[in-house]
Amino acid sequence: MSISTQKVDEVVIRFAGDSGDGMQLTGGRFTETTAIVGNDLSTLPDFPAEIRAPAGSLAGVSAFQIKFSSKDIHTPGDRPDVLVAMNPAALKVHQKEVRPGGIIISNANAFTPRNLKLAGYDTNPLEDKTLDDYFTLYSIEMGKMVTLACEDMELPPRTVERTKNFFALGLLFWIYDRPIQSTKDWLAVKFAKRPELVEANIRAMDAGYNYGETTEIFTTRYTVDKANLPAGTYRNVVGNYALSLGLAAAAEKSGLGLFYGGYPITPASDILHTLAAWKHLGIKTFQAEDEIAGIGSVIGAAFVGNLGITATSGPGIALKSEALGLAIIAELPLVVINVQRGGPSTGLPTKTEQSDLLQAMYGRNGEAPMPVIASATPGDCFFVAYEACRIAVKYMTPVILLTDGYLANGSEPWQVPQLDDLKDFDVTFADESNLIDGQFMPYTRDKKTLARPWAIPGTEGLEHRIGGIEKEDLTGNVSYDPDNHHYMVATRAKKIEAIANEFDPLEIFGNASGDLLILSWGGTKGSCRSAVEKLQADGQKVSHVHLRWVNPFPNDLGEILIKFKNVLIPEINYGQLIKIIRSEFLIDAKGLNQVRGKPISSSDIQKTAKDLIG
Amino acid sequence: MSDTKVKTYTRADFSSDQSVRWCPGCGDYAILAQAQKVFPDLGVSKENFVFISGIGCSSRFPYYMNTFGFHTIHGRAPAIASGVKLSNPDLSVWVVTGDGDALSIGGNHTIHLLRRNLDINVMLFNNRIYGLTKGQYSPTSEIGKVTKSSPFGSLDRPFNPLTLALGAGATYVARTIDRETKHMQVMISRSYGHKGTSFLEIYQNCNIFNDGAFGPMTDKESKADSVLWLENGQPMVFGKEKNRGIRLDGNTPMIVEIGDKWSLDDVLVHNESDYVIASLLSNLTYQSDFPDPIGVLYAIDSPTYEELMMEQINNEIGKKGSTSVQDILNAGDTWVVE
User: What's the gap in Å between the CA of B174 and the closest CA on chain A?
Assistant: First the structure.
């Protein structure tokens, strides 16, 4: 029997297994290899909050989805074409999302009576033919295969069994015609101190690859051509890593010391981990005793002239709120990153959500406006981090940067940025020239930006006191004067509003008027763009605008909105941006709101859009 | 930290132009005055001092010192001061706080500052009452204290700040009294001189809400029997005639009269580097039959957090050489699209 090769434009694969099955790692390797092949790609890791839920349980299923394409894509895909299910629980949790007609590849050895029972199966779905009408099922004894492959190595059976994810990876490499060598090189580095593990995993991977080649079970291999991306050097990048790079880039361009103070919290901790490893860049990281101390230390750092950064998730922002107010009234530059997750309270720690927008906008006592910027894609995290730092320093204000669990852990091919291409980031500390009649006034302002001078301890003649009590205009002394308070509240608000004057005009994807405008912010950009592309291809008069800054709104947003008959705002929350848009612009915007802990699918957006415009 | 080109300062150089707004008769005035006396002579340029405070009467302190100052939020001064010190280790950083600020709302930050041992000087004004909120019991108020929020007497067992500091791993623990101006000057100087976190508790009288809390230690008649003045290497004696001493009976401290039965040789000799002695002394607080120890209970040398942090950074720079973020951007598996 001959094996045919079929060219396809895009494929969505989901790897699913027990938490201990190494699915994130398997997905990560497939992603890196796919990046090297030159496809465009987008990934979505989906793992449980429990570090090791009971083996075989539904709660313990961990998954990793990748979409790769020869075209420019914006999302990790809605429904998988291929599901790799390493055990019954993984099949149970993910089978219903597989595209009808899709492929399911499973590890038959894991379908034991015990595991079937844990997953709630009365009969073995690999044998009872319930799947056959809908899917192409490949039931493979991966456990047995890797045992045979490592037979002569005298390794403990448990160690051998744990290489089965590399068998699955090898098989997928074969089916999708991916090179295998880079993963071999990677294994050699990863397990440099355990050569037997390098050998066992390579044998497992080769066994998987060769299984596809020789068994004749698979009649088709698929190829996906290189994507037509703009020329340049690319790498694959994960959101939290890109964000960390953006912060480091801001420090280097500005010449400021980078001080990061924070408390570990999912899904933000990788930012702390990444920066902590970059001591050779001179970056200082401080694992504080709690969230409040995290931002407290950063406020202290900002007071003495460092670029102060803290990152957390929604619960951490709640704890930092009072300190944010202090940074606002003290007018100190710092960046607070919220990698949003499902809420309220502990909520869904490892799942994505966009439900902290109103918290970012309004979640403080008093009139306490702050700029709010949001990342759109994993790679965009780099640029918004840089921009957040630049704006914070230029306007002497704390800035909130919103990402989310999907952006933080998701990845995409990324054209490597050049520091030289980034906007200038110059910093001027106050000095003797700021003295007025020999006196320093900490609350004088730059006429254009309304920023106050950054006067740091150690500068002779600039000794002054600031604090959380209302400041007197100019002198910064404690003031309870009613008119002064009114003036200072207004001035702090105007300062934030003025930031919009330096935004580029909004990009309208599509016509500047029409039946429907889809308006997005944050991580839903990709789903919205995909939906709009399809709707436009269908001949619909639909356009897309994405907001990078949510506060202040771009100056041209209002005039864009009124040129469309309908406005649709898809959000992974119960309707937050829509509240602000309605109240700011008095338009009858419609929402599409899903809070399921995962990205909104572009097909749902298309459907809602079609319903709206009839 | 002590720079070479330090100007000659007077007390006036450290007084800001803000009028001091504590209640007349408040112990805080005395503390401010001693600080303004001592600071000119510490050998530090004025612009290198930073005062960080939280919330409470004591926390208004930075407004009155003509240095860099930051009056922050309740309980968080140690956290903010940590960021200041780590970002610029050349600064002389002082935290001014109170019993509520440091031990109640900010208890967590206090203990973690102490265990990390940053070179930060903490001055805790302990008046055993909440002053700014007008008279509720504090975490150092004695059991049974009747206040607005405890009309039938406080049920809380009080914190002993010095025991807490020692338990948290402090490398320097001392106590002084607002009325003992000369002693306070010495204690402030020693706080400055200690490399690592210095923890100075200052008994401070709130004449509005808790007047006389430390009366036995400040009243002329009772003072000699109520205060145990600590001096390193000296026997622990007290009393008008210096004829009473602290002796260890097994592990239990007892008061002995020096004379027929006991001689000076039987009295415990203070050793600032002995944790057991410091711990024992700190626990004499709140014991009505013992005098309160005043002075330096504990002082040891230990590397500071910022030294260790800079060491790690310099090691890494030494190992990897100077690196640009561009190098990290360019690293990893890259590919070129033509």
Answer: 24
